[in-house]
Design brief:
The chain is mostly beta strands and 230 residues long. The chain is 7% helix and 46% strand.
């Protein structure tokens, strides 16, 4: 009975984690309108552009041709609404790097021409200034990801990307506020138009978050980060 209970639990967990996914837009105009309700006559409440990453509800695909989307905006409220289903493309549908090597402090995904490594190290609190504001942790005056109102243990120390032997410069600001990496949820997707998406679902519990680093034309482009898909 205990074994059966565990199987049911983990089956439910897998279904839950697949209920939402990350996507980009799929439109020749380079943008799509976000509607307040799931119809073409509803109020336009925002736009998604080709550079944007957003979360969508996969369960809404079975309900209508309109997909519920969510986009966390820095220093703004959560943007949520509806986009027509053929206007989005799930990042998980892209080819991904399969060859993986993982140890305690790093993980590498690679193929014949590309290598992506994320490294981490122990967080030494005495070397930093910590403060807590409500349920948010700040280190050296910056809001961090991965620890809500608690002391972090591990921080991401570097992200290394090599394409055809050329090293992509990933600035410190792309990872210096990220803590508690989870290498079991580390994927690299090979997107269209020479774009690479490096995705990690990190931490657990109340501090869980997703980060997606974007590499475009062999250079660091941007990152998207949220705590919605938890």
């Amino acid at each position: 009975m205990k074994t059966l209970t565990l199987i049911i639990f983990f089956s439910f967990l897998c279904l839950f984690t697949r209920a939402q996914n990350y996507a980009i837009i799929n439109d020749k105009d380079g943008f799509v309108n976000i509607r307040k309700e799931a119809n073409s006559k509803s109020e336009i409440i925002g736009k998604l552009y080709s550079k944007n990453i957003f979360l969508y509800d996969t369960e809404s695909e079975t309900l209508s041709k309109w997909i519920k989307i969510y986009k966390q905006q820095p220093k703004k409220s959560l943007l949520e609404g509806y986009v027509y289903e053929d206007k989005i493309y799930s990042i998980s549908r892209f080819p991904r790097l399969r060859q993986k090597k993982t140890s305690i402090n790093n993980s590498t995904l690679q193929n014949d021409s590309m290598l992506v490594t994320v490294r981490s190290s122990k967080f030494i609190s005495k070397n930093h200034r910590l403060s807590f504001q409500g349920d948010q942790t700040h280190i050296d005056g910056k809001l961090i990801w991965g620890a809500d109102n608690s002391m972090p243990h591990i921080h991401i120390s570097s992200v290394i990307v090599s394409i055809d032997g050329n090293i992509v410069n990933i600035p410190n600001k792309a990872f210096e506020d990220l803590y508690e990496p989870n290498y079991s949820n580390f994927n690299v997707y090979l997107g269209k138009n020479n774009t690479i998406y490096i995705e990690m679902d990190n931490s657990d519990g109340a501090g869980a978050y997703t980060v997606i680093w974007i590499i475009k034309d062999g250079k660091y482009f941007d990152r998207y980060i949220d705590n919605l898909n938890v």
